[in-house]
Amino acid sequence: MTASILRSALRRSGSSATASSYFASRGFASAPSHERKVAVLGAAGGIGQPLSLLMKLNPLVSRLALYDIAGTPGVAADVSHINTRSEVKGYAGDDQLGEALEGSDVVIIPAGVPRKPGMTRDDLFKINAGIVKSLCEAIAKYCPNALVNMISNPVNSTVPIAAEVFKSHGVYDPRRLFGVTTLDVVRAKTFYAGKAKVNVADVNVPVIGGHAGITILPLFSQATPKANLSDEEILALTKRTQDGGTEVVEAKAGKGSATLSMAYAGAIFADACLKGLNGVPDVVECTFVQSTVTELPFFASKVRLGKNGVEEVLGLGPLTHFEKQGLEALKPELKSSIEKGIAFVHGN
Ligand SMILES: NC(=O)c1ccc[n+]([C@@H]2O[C@H](COP(=O)([O-])OP(=O)(O)OC[C@H]3O[C@@H](n4cnc5c(N)ncnc54)[C@H](O)[C@@H]3O)[C@@H](O)[C@H]2O)c1
Ligand SMILES: O=C(O)C[C@H](O)C(=O)O
C-alpha cells in the first residue's frame, strides 16, 4: 500500500486523520488501550514486509518486533519511520530471536519457503517443518503465553508441529495456537460478492476444514447477504476458493505465492487476536485450531476469540448435501497432513 493510496483511501473515508484512525474507523482495530507486543517471524519476506507495514498501522500494537534470518534491520528502519503508535525493532539471526520474542502477546509466523508452479503446499513440508519447529522451540522458551498465528505452509501440518513442540516443552495451550486461514475467507468473500453482485464490504462467508486444496471448504449456503446462485455457480465458487492460492502461484510464474493479500489477511487475523486479548466482545474469525467439531484433532471453523485466545470453537451450522460431501471428502487428506506433522516432531 503506497502512501498515495492510503491518502486517497483516507480522503474517501472523509477522514483527515492518520492511518491509525483509518483502520479504526473500519473496525480494523479498537481504540488503543493496552500495551501489546507483536513479533513477526520471517519479517523480511514477501508476506513479512507488507504484514509488518500493516501491523505498524495497527493502533493496538505498542511494540513491533521484526525478526528474520537476515534483512530485518533495513525493514525495521524503514517501517519505524511511520508516525504511528508502535516502537519498531529489527532482529536478525538466531542469537537475537529470544530478544525478539520476549514479552510478545502475539507471534505471527510467515517464515519459510513459498510454492512454485506445479508444487503442492505439502511439497514445502521438507523445508518448512524444520523452520517452524525451531521457531516454536524458541517461542516455548521465550514467550510461552503468546498467541501464535501460523501462516507458514503447509498449515495443515505446521499447526500440529507447533502443538507437539509446545507439548514437549510443557507449555501447550490449545487456546493459543491458530492456523491462519483468513485468506480463504477473504477470497471466498471477494469471489462471492462478484458472482452475487452484492457489496463486498457486507459479505460474510465461513470457510471450514483446512488450508490446502479440497480441505478448504467454503460454506456458501451460509453466505450473507443471501443470493440465489445455481448449483453450478456454487460449484465454481467453491473450486475457485480452493484453488485461489494456485491461481496466484501460477500468475506469479515462479516468483512465489500470495504475499499482499496474505499480508492483508494476516493483519486482519492478528487484529482479531489483539481485540480478543483486549476484551472486545464477539470477535469471531474462521481459523484452524484444536477442535472437537469433527473427529479430526485440528479443524478450521468459526472461533470466538477472547482474553485467553480461543474462547469457543463454534459449530459448523447446517450444511447442504454438497457441503456434507465436501466435508467427508476432505477428511482423509486433512487427517494425513495432521498426522504427518505430529510424526515429524517425534522423529517418525
Ligand atoms: N496461510 C496462508 O494462507 C498462506 C498464504 C500465503 C503464503 N503462505 C506461506 O507463507 C510462507 C512465506 O511465504 P513468503 O511468500 O513470505 O515467502 P518468502 O520466501 O518471500 O519469505 C519467507 C521469509 O522467511 C524467512 N525465513 C526462512 N527461515 C527462517 C527462520 N528460520 N526464521 C525466520 N525467518 C526465516 C526468509 O528469510 C524469508 O525472508 C510460505 O510457506 C507460504 O507458503 C501461507
Ligand atoms: O498457495 C500457496 O502456496 C500460498 C497460500 O497457501 C495461499 O493460499 O495463497
UniProtKB/TrEMBL annotation:
The active site is at residue 211. It is an enzyme of class 1 (oxidoreductase). Its EC number is 1.1.1.37. Residues 37-179 form the Lactate/malate dehydrogenase N-terminal domain. Its main location: mitochondrion. InterPro entries: L-lactate/malate_DH, Lactate/malate_DH_C, Lactate/malate_DH_N, Lactate_DH/Glyco_Ohase_4_C, Malate_DH_AS, Malate_DH_type1, NAD(P)-bd_dom_sf. GO terms for cellular component: mitochondrial matrix. Keywords: Mitochondrion, NAD, Oxidoreductase, Transit peptide, Tricarboxylic acid cycle. Residues 181-345 form the Lactate/malate dehydrogenase C-terminal domain. One of its GO terms (molecular function) is L-malate dehydrogenase (NAD+) activity. The keyword Transit peptide applies. Homodimer. This is Malate dehydrogenase. It comes from Perilla frutescens var. hirtella (Perilla citriodora).
